[in-house]
Amino acid sequence: MRQKDVHTNIMLDLECAAINTHNPAIIELAAVYFDIDTGEELDSLCTPVSLQSSMEHGLITDDNTLGWLKREIPQTLQTSQECSISLPQAIMRLSKFVKKAMRETEARRVKAGLPKPWRSQPMIWGNGTMADNTWIRSAYKACAMEVPWEYYNDMCVRTVVKQVWAQTGKDYSLKPLAPPRQGLKHDALSDCRFQIAYLVLARNEPWSEAPKPGSSATGPTPGTSAVAALPVNGGGPPTSSTAIDYPEKKMASEGVGKPTAGHHSTRQLPSPEVSFSKGSTQAEYDLLTVPAVATRVHLSKRQLLTPETSFNGKEGDCEDEGPPMKRVNYRLGSGPEWQEEEWLYFLEQEAKEQRNNNQSP
Fold this sequence. Notes:
Elements: E1 8-16, E2 26-34, E3 41-48, H1 51-56, H2 63-72, H3 74-82, H4 87-111, E4 122-126, H5 132-142, E5 154-156, H6 157-168, H7 188-208, H8 247-254, H9 272-276, H10 282-286, H11 307-311, E6 327-329, E7 335-337, H12 340-359
Parallel strand pairs: 1-4, 4-5
Antiparallel strand pairs: 1-2, 2-3, 6-7
Helix pairs in contact: 2-3, 6-7
């Protein structure tokens, strides 16, 4: 079952006087504190912002967007041009709103008898990764004020909705699946509420159609194969799990010694037939779990295989024992250590052999 969200979720929407920029002049700001599991609205904020104040703080406008504002939402633009709420005042209202919502989240959980969420953080939702969240951060920077949430808690409504569409083929931001809009389009508060409505629908979609918990919902039972419990080629889960023999028991019954730790065999790698074929047998699945018996091999430079030693069957060419093994003292946790006497002896023999080769005619 999905755990209830413990964070303070706030939907943000801005009306701006420029589009293709990271720092547009803001003319209206709205935020809604909501329960992301149910869509319940818990609190809201909506305030006009003086266009003149936004421009005085370095935020910009463009003629195309101003022309669009005059045609589509002239009342919002006029209110911004006439209002006395400066950009810093509007930003301060938003900061206080976020902190108040945080305290409310904790109070609601205590009242419900739930533990205080020490990981609870403000999650600020905007419709687009390069839109409202980026614009509001530019406004905070222009006012030299601290953003009251972490950068990694900037959330994107569009990303969630498009991901659900990619997985289910359902786009809840568009008709006929979109919920009915309450209020005017391009009104900041109405846009917040509409975005919350279809975000909650999209977010709950995968859970509403999730398969009901069954015998395999908690994973395979002890002593059964996890491979056998997986669906194959998109098919449904098997009716029962298949028991497996543990490697130690299997090799003991066959008279085979225990494998050397840390060695793996290519027999463990699943082939296309073993991985994806519906007709795979249990014997093929066991190859994925039973490691092959490996023998530790000592190699030196002179033991590296050449075309002559690899293919002509002259095994005697690779009989040299090579340098002593590099040993690891795991008990003391001290890492790799050479056996000093063996290593010095090996170097001495190598030097002696080199001198003999140099002296020979």
